[in-house]
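Run folding on both entries below.
>entry_1
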Amino acid sequence: MSDAEKKPDSAKDLPQAAEVLSIERNQAGQIVVKLAGRDEPIVDAKIVRCFPWSLPEAYVSIRDGDGKEISLLETLESLDDASRQITERELADKVFNPKIKKIIGFHHEFGVTSITAETDRGEVTFQIKSRDDVRVLSPTRAFFRDVDGNTYELPDRSKLDSTSKRYLQRYF
């Protein structure tokens, strides 16, 4: 059996993702990634969260223009400050995901619940149809998906005022 036909015996035999040296934007606004051991940078790279709901700050995939993963960052701490800022901005721009700070109004009628909330991006009103539109990730954290497909994050229910908690008690 040739070396090319051998299966890896251990993790050390598996191909390793390239180390990211820097992440920048070029004049055209494309993401440019410089990798260790590679002379030419990856132009028009994509930055994607692997687990956007359960681990939004961990496991970030760097992909080439064809969508092939070129590196996986367990955390953003391995990046220099400028690269980290570009990466965080790119990830924030991908998903409109306001964080709920307070529930201002809550109305249930004809099978639809309308929620008015104060978020980190201003006041919003959104509708959910059923409990299936609420994804509880922990005893204090949840995501709400509205009828238009937008998501709203409740990062920590325990930090809400008592009225907001009362409105949301049916979901926890």
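>entry_2
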Amino acid sequence: MLTESLVVPRLFPAHPRLLREVFMPTVIVQVNDLMQTNYNYERIEPVGKNYHPDFRPELKPEEMLALGVFGGKYMTDCKDEFPDEWFKNAKLCSERHDPDLNFFGVNASQPLSVWQKKGWIYEEDPRGWFQWYCRYYMGRRCRDDERQIKRWIGMRRHITQIKRNCFEADLNCRRKQRQALLHWAYDSRKY
């Protein structure tokens, strides 16, 4: 269940047009799904804008879901938190992780338990990196941003390996690596 409320700064006196141009209202999101209950966060940036200068994802969350990522299992119980458009063409499977739903048809994921054991999960994003990215895309900023962006940058090594070892546009070469890059918002179809 998603609950949103607007928090608008109180400023006196101010012209309404000036307020709209200078201040974007903060949106408070309350999350209640299978992995989080009564979690609240603020969306303080416009959707899809004002990213850290080093963070330039090639795919939006909606595009990733439509291509097929995480075996379709990732976002099946938290649709209320994100725009309906994201799910119109999403390849999802609520019963299980189904690698056939992935764009490259291979499993390129580790179980969540592995991520938890290695300490890669930030407590506010119990589903991991993609949940962080979806919330970042929607305008949330948090203390985990820098770490997640560094992890995203670290995935570039896979692009280098694909470029060194595959003929251009050979999507059958290094399919698991290509799928993993899709999971991290890199469009590996173009390498």
